[in-house]
């Protein structure tokens, strides 16, 4: 059984790494090493960070071996080196980077697998970083030729379905892999509500712009309006009329909902309604919920994955996106970010 599990996980690790390299195969060293945006990491930093994370968890903490490059520990620690300074650092580049990634992987294939939880953590960490890398590439206009936006949906985002009141069990159960913020599974009550059958489309968003939605302060929260004014936000670049709108901030999503006498769903409402909804997984969907721990939350395997972000600053997103690998996306996966962020592959589904 151990050999079968190890073989399967190692095959997935190899597949994911090939996918990662394919994602940046069209870029030269200059594009890989340069900061593409002030709020994003250089792509080469992300690649080195993936390997350092793998070395820490599989080789050091599982395998009991010294880090391959102790001198890189702080450089690739996301908390020690925030995004704003990563472009100025002497992170690994070119052949040195590729050699480090290969050497870490060679050792990782020798690490004991056990129940496979930490191998799965490393796999999903890389998959999540490739979505972040895609965000950076889209901001710079250098995304892979094979990458396209979300598929079309059969609605405008304004058609609603009803969800009855009553209790609902949400979160991940005790079996299988899940992040600490997805547990424990617990029961919550909702009142009756309605929710968009599909995410809001570009056509509906353009109608919001044409009706003066970005000029009417009444639709915006106070911080949202201040953000809009400070950054001169007057609209959205749009896309195919019948595809979900993408790259909208929480502030914009909230304003759109208010303009339609609606609101954003809570994450409990979103998870309860998800099995009935069209377009789940096309775009991340902002909720009104702040990112906090579920009742009985326990940090695992380290506080910095979730707990340090708890509080009122971050808002939860649900559902996954066209850039999210299916291994990561699930009905109970919780993404989170600051309400002003637009680089995410995020849209909106309204509720009442």
UniProtKB/TrEMBL annotation:
Pathway listed: Amino-acid biosynthesis; ergothioneine biosynthesis
Sulfatase-modifying factor enzyme-like domain boundaries: 159-274, 280-352
Domain DinB-like: 14-131
N-terminal signal peptide: none
Keyword set, alphabetical order: Iron, Oxidoreductase
Descriptive protein name: Iron(II)-dependent oxidoreductase
Source species of the chain: Solirubrobacter pauli
